[in-house]
Amino acid sequence: MSEENRTNAPEEELTQEDINSLKKIRMDKLEELKAKGKNPFEITKYDVTASCAEAKAQYEKLEAELKSQAGEDEEKLKELLEANRITVSVAGRVMSRRLMGKASFFDLRDKSDKVQVYLRMNEIGKEEFDDYKKGDIGDIVGIEGFVFRTKMGEISIHAQEFVLLSKSLLPLPEKWHGLKDQDTRYRQRYTDLICNPEVKDTFIKRSQIISSIRRYLDGQGFMEVETPMLVSNAGGAAARPFETHYNALDEDVKLRISLELYLKRLIVGGLERVYEIGRVFRNEGVDARHNPEFTLMELYQAYTDYYGMMDLTENMFRHVAQEVCGTTCVPYGDVMIDLGKPFERMTMIDAVKKYSGVDFSQVATTEEAKALADEHHIEYEARHKRGDILNLFFEEYVEEHLIQPTFIMDHPIEISPLTKKKPENPDYVERFELFITGREMCNAYSELNDPIDQRERFAAQEEALKQGDEEANHTDEDFLRALEIGMPPTGGIGYGIDRLVMLLTNSPAIRDVLLFPTMKTLE
Questions:
Q1: Kind and range of the H or E run holding 391
Q2: What is the pTM of this model?
Q3: DSSP 302-352
Q4: What pLDDT, in 10s, does the model give residues 57-78?
Q5: Which residues pair with 144 in a beta bridge?
Q6: How many angstroms separate the CA atoms of 223 and 42, rounded?
Q7: Is the Cβ–Cβ distance between 281 and 293 less than 8 Å?
């Protein structure tokens, strides 16, 4: 089978032997071009005057204007179009070809769209046309020509100049299905982006989401900052850190698991509204919702509490959805998520009572809580206390039901070491998590600013660490020193950017919204 036939045979699975054979054919073509002084890799630039989408839009606009002049006279319209030709230079990748003797159509794709290109040997010259015929799907080319509409009604470019800008030495994959191909899509995102335009749309939307968040927060008076990724004490979340060694200082350091403790130091320093969008790293498993490195946005605002954070969260989610998706009702799987309505607010105790029938407001001791867990077949560890058991009930009975936006408020103190206690009930803290589609989307507090209480919480975390909790926090003396200088009442929140992108792009797995997700190395 010839390469032209192979690369246009989507139902044929290429073996590694086939791929090696095709690569040799393409290498031979490259050597032939080099021998003629036409090495494409020596070209350093190409002047692009329009994207594929812009070229088509310009023609549509011109055509509409000239139709108003020509009226119903088709011949006059044809004359006007020929007299007012739009000439463009476009560049992109050849995605398909149809040879017809001394002429050819091919599809050219750039980041904006694809456009059909028409070539004739009589116009670009026999030598250039022969070079074109020896080209391959996947080659990157530049085209100069005028825009027109074919008899079939498709806006196309009539090429008057053809330049090979980069030679593709490997064939593009022709189809993506099954677990094996899904794995390859993640490992070779570059081919995934080429072959699946909807994937490119996801990552364009991801960029727009992050830009929209920045615009919203900047408009609310927040300042974007950057804080260290390499830290001596990885705190601010319940997670195991990655550890490494810093040769210059001869010290072991960790990759941050959160942005929290440094941002709070800035609140102490008088930067009253700060946020950071950055990568964090957690040494944990990989599944549909988790990747060991991910993008987190945390913000802190002085002189507000977790109710202020709820209002900000609701308004920001609504703003981003409207700006990026054009609506506050977005599809996810087989349901419509309504971000336009007020988000439901429910305490963790009320949520557990609603979905499990167990009322933890009537559970006074850890022993009673563990007895209930045994009765409901919920596994727990010996070190767990009453509040930990409540959280386990929540995870078991409640999370899957929280499809529409719901704030779960007032978490137990045992699982919230950095959060301010509720004055009327110190067993609970002023904390909420936002759940949508059964997933935690963000986590927020009325921040603990009492250094005495914070030291006691750190001591409890150190004890949990001794008892085997590898995700417990270490005491951070410098952070405590900052609190002793004085931090105003503050509200703070952390958003998982990847999960927000999953929601707004209707993506089922976190790997679908990460350009290069973490994958086990192939042997």
A1: helix 386-397
A2: 0.90
A3: ET--HHHHHHHHHHHHHHHHHHHHSSSEEEETTEEEE-SSPPEEEEHHHHH
A4: 999 999 999 999 998 899 999 9
A5: 89, 161
A6: 45
A7: yes
